[in-house]
């Protein structure tokens, strides 16, 4: 895709980072050089290349290098803990890992040796930065590969639409990681249709992309921008003032983010007295936008809001609002299905529910995944005989075809666009000596989409505070998994089979969370960023 755009607008800026801009031609040259060096190392068509990188140009170059090789890219969250990263690398059978020496502030040589020893198929690790580190025939410096690749013929794999392009890791309701297999046709459909809905063009600059491992960044971000000639302003630092400085400096036309990140960006805009005058649109992804925040976004940024409803299993966007939609639709719905996507709502017995009725959201179309990597039974459990993907989301279609997102059926909390596995946090809570029982649920929140609520029953005579609970979890799990609120209870409601009745807990706590004093205070805790 970037090679095609190079022929049309070689000298136009594509990647903007750290105050510098790389053109389409420069990115294509680097992707070709990296692909040539990786091919010399033995990386070939069908191999898996894992990317554990912040939002940086190297992440995008690596993606297009993999496309040239015919390899599958596996973009992973750079905040993954080492055991989780090791599991995914083994499960996907990664042949190559591209990462950053500065990640997580660890002894990176020791980490890399552990990953190589624990991942039988992992033959090579490419590192960005770290000139003082020691390298061997398995650990390679990014700059060395680029330099060596310039003297070699680059592979030019011509992909078919059905060829695999990426494997995106997500979580199921049981908290287990699953690899979503996506073909070129899946990601291209989501990228092109989203870009068309946004009227994306060569004059556009997208700002606010602080992560390149997400489905939206991979498809509508990288591929969409490359296909339509737009520029990407990449920002590894999630500091809202730095993002808005870049947006101002580079004439951003579209500001992207999750509801959580957009809330922080609004505060930055208010501090500086107004938005960049070049903005024409705000795009929210990763979680539904609550009505109050939607109105505030449009009032503060002075541009329309578009909301994209995205899932890894649909290669990112499956429905979205458009800038020209009526305000009531932009503020209250996640829009209409894109392209050739069909949405139907399913009752408990599998039948289709009528218009204006609530049911499980099921999706069919060109964006729907090929399946879960090495998990045929999991695949069969979500893809029915009519090729509809049965999601864990609950919604309603109105008479005008707009989709209203109501909530989730499963045990995963979508906090600020990131999945928090309830079972994982519950196991952590149960390990505390003063906790007898615990359940983690999601509560509707205007900023995060869902806030993580820990419902805790103390052991008899146990003394335990909310602060202690949060510090206990923060010491053991990634920071975005720390509960936003803790509710101490005498008992938990149970079903007839002895399972915790999560829906009843949500009913009891949802209103108190939304209206209780000081609820938003917790989002300013720097450990949760």
Summarize the biggest pleated sheet: 9 strands, mixed
Helix content: 25-40%
Low-confidence stretches: 517-529
SS field, number of helical segments: 16
E-strand count: 26
Shape: globular
Sheet-strand content, in percent, reads: 25-35%
Strands ordered across the widest β-sheet: 2-1-11-10-12-13-14-15-16
* Spatial extent as radius of gyration: 23 Å
Through-space gap between termini: 34 Å
Overall pLDDT, averaged? Answer: 88
- Summing up helix and strand content along with how strands pair, one would put the structural category as alpha/beta
Structural overview:
The chain has 529 residues and is of the alpha/beta class. Helices cover 33% and strands 26% of the residues. It contains 16 helices and 26 strands. A 9-stranded mixed β-sheet has the order 2-1-11-10-12-13-14-15-16, with helices on both faces. A 5-stranded parallel β-sheet has the order 4-3-5-6-7. Helix 15 (466-474) links the parallel strand 25 and strand 26 (485-488). Helix 1 packs antiparallel against helix 2, helix 2 (24-40) packs across helix 6 (142-149) and helix 9 packs across helix 10 (259-272). The protein is globular, with a radius of gyration of 23 Å. The model is unreliable at 517-529 (pLDDT under 50).
């Amino acid at each position: 895709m970037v090679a095609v755009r190079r022929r049309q607008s070689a000298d136009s800026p594509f990647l903007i980072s750290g105050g510098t801009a790389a053109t389409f031609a420069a990115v294509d040259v680097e992707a070709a050089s990296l692909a040539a060096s990786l091919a010399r190392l033995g990386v070939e068509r069908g191999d898996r290349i894992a990317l554990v990188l912040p939002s940086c140009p190297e992440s995008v170059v690596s993606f297009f290098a993999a496309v040239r090789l015919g390899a599958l890219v596996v973009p992973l969250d750079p905040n993954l803990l080492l055991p989780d990263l090791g599991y995914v690398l083994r499960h996907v059978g990664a042949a190559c890992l591209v990462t950053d020496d500065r990640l997580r502030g660890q002894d990176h040589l020791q980490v890399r040796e552990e990953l190589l020893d624990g991942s039988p198929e992992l033959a090579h690790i490419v590192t960005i930065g770290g000139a003082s580190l020691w390298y061997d025939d398995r650990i390679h410096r990014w700059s060395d590969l680029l330099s060596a690749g310039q003297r070699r013929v680059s592979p030019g794999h011509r992909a078919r639409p059905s060829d695999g392009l990426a494997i995106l890791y997500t979580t199921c309701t049981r908290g287990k990681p699953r690899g979503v297999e996506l073909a070129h046709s899946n990601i291209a459909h989501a990228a092109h249709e989203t870009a068309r809905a946004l009227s994306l063009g060569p004059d556009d600059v997208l700002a606010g992309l602080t992560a390149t491992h997400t489905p939206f960044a991979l498809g509508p971000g990288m591929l969409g921008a490359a296909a339509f000639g737009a520029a990407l302003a990449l920002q590894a630092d999630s500091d809202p003032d730095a993002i808005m400085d870049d947006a101002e400096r580079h004439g951003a036309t579209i500001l992207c983010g999750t509801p959580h990140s957009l809330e922080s960006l609004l505060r930055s805009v208010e501090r500086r007295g107004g938005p960049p005058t070049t903005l024409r649109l705000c795009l929210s992804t990763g979680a539904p936008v609550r009505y109050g925040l939607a109105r505030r976004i449009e009032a503060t940024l002075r541009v329309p809001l578009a909301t994209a409803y995205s899932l890894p299993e649909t290669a990112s966007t499956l429905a979205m609002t458009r800038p020209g939609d009526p305000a009531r639709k932009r503020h209250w719905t996640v829009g209409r299905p894109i392209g050739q996507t069909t949405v139907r709502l399913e009752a408990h017995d599998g039948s289709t529910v009528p218009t204006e009725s609530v049911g499980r959201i099921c999706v069919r179309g060109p964006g729907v995944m090929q399946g879960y990597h090495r998990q045929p039974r999991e695949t069969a459990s979500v893809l029915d005989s009519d090729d509809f993907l049965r999601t864990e989301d609950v919604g309603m279609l109105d008479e005008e075809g707009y989709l209203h997102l109501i909530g989730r059926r499963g045990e995963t909390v979508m906090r600020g666009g990131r999945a928090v596995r309830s079972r994982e946090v519950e196991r952590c809570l149960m390990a505390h000596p003063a906790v007898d029982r615990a359940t983690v649920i999601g509560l509707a929140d205007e900023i995060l989409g869902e806030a993580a609520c820990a419902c805790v029953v103390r052991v008899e005579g146990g003394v335990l505070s909310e602060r202690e609970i949060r510090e206990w979890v923060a010491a053991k799990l990634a920071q975005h998994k720390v509960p936003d609120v803790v509710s101490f209870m005498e008992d938990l409601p149970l079903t007839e089979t002895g399972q915790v009745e999560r829906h009843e807990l949500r009913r009891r706590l949802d209103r108190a969370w939304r209206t209780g004093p000081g609820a938003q205070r917790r989002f300013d805790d720097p450990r949760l960023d």
